[in-house]
Amino acid sequence: MKGLARTSLKDGTLEIVFSSSIMFTPGKADIEREFMKNVDIMVALIKNKNPNYRVIVEGHTDDNPLSDENAFSSNWDLASSRAASVVDRFIHYGFKPNQLAAVGFGDSRPVSPNRDKFGVAIKENQALNRRVIIKVLQPLRSTKMRNVGIESYFEDTEIIKK
Question: Of the four listed, 80, 82, 123, 134, which is most buried by Cβ atoms within 10 Å?
Fold first, then answer.
């Protein structure tokens, strides 16, 4: 997976960032067949480490509007569907749905400006903004649902000790 993703560890959360350009055909939400094996390897590695991890998958797009012929109504819709496609792979490999969340942010959280001061698209930045972020969180023993914000709807009591 070297060169296909950027990884970082922040506050006990592993973040894996993929360019959606390598995962998806433009304007589509199905994972590219050629890339599916990479996603499956990553999911299997995570499951082998601990099948109780909680996972949040975020979909992000650039600010280009979708064409009228596109199956998705907006960049929000496309980003959400892409995140859900990745979550489906976790379910396929046996993760429980209550451990998973798919979130679409559309173009609302760019890492770089999509356009210059004249409103002209900056293609390199737009490519950076089209991404999928997989956040692997510490597993929790679950007893009750807890809402602690848009990114954290999971059952919660205590962190499982190894």
Answer: 82
Spatial distance between the Cα atoms of 152 and 109, rounded to a whole number of angstroms: 17
Q: What pTM does this model have?
A: 0.84
> What are 159's strand-pairing partners?
140
Q: Measured between alpha carbons, how far is 34 from 74 in angstroms, rounded to an integer?
A: 26
pLDDT tens digit string along 68-91?
888 899 999 999 999 999 999 999
Residue 25 CA to its chain's centroid (Å):
16
Question: Which residue from 41, 147, 145 is spatially nearest to 156, judged by alpha carbons?
Answer: 145
Q: How far is Cα 9 from Cα 80, in angstroms, rounded to an integer? A: 24
CA distance 55 to 14: 10
